[in-house]
Amino acid sequence: DRHRDFHAGDREAQQAAGALEATFGDATAAMTANAEAAAGTVGLSEAAYAQMASTIGSQLGNMGVAQDEIAGTTDALIAKGADLAAQFGGSTADAVSALSSLMRGERDPIERYGVSLSAAAIEAQKARTGLSGLTGEADRAATTQATLALLSQQTASSTGAFARETGTAAGAQA
User: Fold this and answer.
1) Using CA atoms, how far apart are residues 81 and 162, in angstroms rounded to an integer?
2) What is the DSSP string of 52-87?
3) Which residues, 6+ apart, have CB-to-CB distance to 78 below 8 Å?
4) Assuming Cys at both sites, which of 24, 38, 91, 142 could form a disulfide with 49, CB separation 3.0 to 4.6 Å?
5) Per-residue pLDDT of the chain (174 residues; tens, 9 = 90+)
6) Shortest CA distance to 45 belongs to which of 53, 55, 37?
């Protein structure tokens, strides 16, 4: 049983594994593999990755992201956090927290990483993609999609920064 193998004896890690299972369902094995590789890929412990992934994955699900897209989007956001931390300084955990805040509509924390998103910009992105004028769940999903698109555009220069920094003095300290 994968849940028991996730650092058996470490209650925090076991809770993180349970949260992954509850959040990602059929994609749990892939997310567990991501957690196991996280030290090398994003500079996080297994348990830290699992906890962050569970939080972001739950947020994305609540925001209308399709279940089959949640795992990939979550992993991409955590990787983006590692890249932002490598480019702008600070920890991956702090950058992922800022991304999580952004997904909740709190835009101030992400500004530290060179991202400036306004409600007007998000509405304009929705209009450009034909997603304006929606209501309820559809509007929430459209807002999430627009936010992710703008985030990707504004952080394109940071993509791969963690990998570039790995092995450097700054990367080793982070």
Assistant:
1) 9
2) HHHHHHHHHHHTT--HHHHHHHHHHHHHHHHHHHHH
3) 34, 38, 42, 44, 49, 52, 53, 56, 92, 96
4) 38
5) 444 445 445 777 778 788 899 999 999 999 999 999 999 999 999 989 999 999 999 999 999 899 999 999 999 999 999 999 999 999 999 999 999 999 999 999 999 999 999 999 999 999 999 999 999 999 999 999 999 999 999 999 999 999 988 765 444 444
6) 37
